[in-house]
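2024-03-11 09:14:02 DEBUG pipeline.ingest accepted 1 chain
2024-03-11 09:14:02 DEBUG pipeline.ingest length=171
2024-03-11 09:14:03 DEBUG pipeline.predict start
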Amino acid sequence: MPINYGDGGTSAAGRIVQVVQTVKTDTYSTQSSTYGDITGLNTSITVASGNKVLVHAQLWIGDAGSYSSWFRMRRVNPNGSDTAPFLGDSAGSRTRATTGGYTDQNSFAQKICSFMVLDTPSDYSAAQSYRVQMMSGYNGTTSYVNQDYQNSNSSSRGRSISTVTLFEVAA
């Protein structure tokens, strides 16, 4: 028996089947110029064979003025292998990233970095895990998630949240 949707269609193709979200409310920092997992910004989803995963991440970052932070998404397959399927092209010594960039010249500013990608899982036997990794653009310079660089205790400053949301999209 077909399902009749509100728009009159009966096909499930392209429709959202389930949504899973992780919300990070605490802060994270790194001084490393190599990628490392952001604690608390990983989530998993089990999807039906043939379906896709729409991955949306929204990240608030703080750097010293004119410094950078870079992010990449990694997918961990059910067999334990992992990959970073969505990175910018290689070009000289530039950092390959899913998103990121420079903070303006004010170290009290927070910047939003986000990405949305449609992923095709390589294995449907169990849950796919997605995690966000971060690196500082300059080794030894601290980059932050969910706070500004100065982190002054003032009502004019804020703490924010970062999220990773996974949507199962029917084939």
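2024-03-11 09:14:41 DEBUG pipeline.report The chain has a mean pLDDT of 90.
2024-03-11 09:14:41 DEBUG pipeline.predict end
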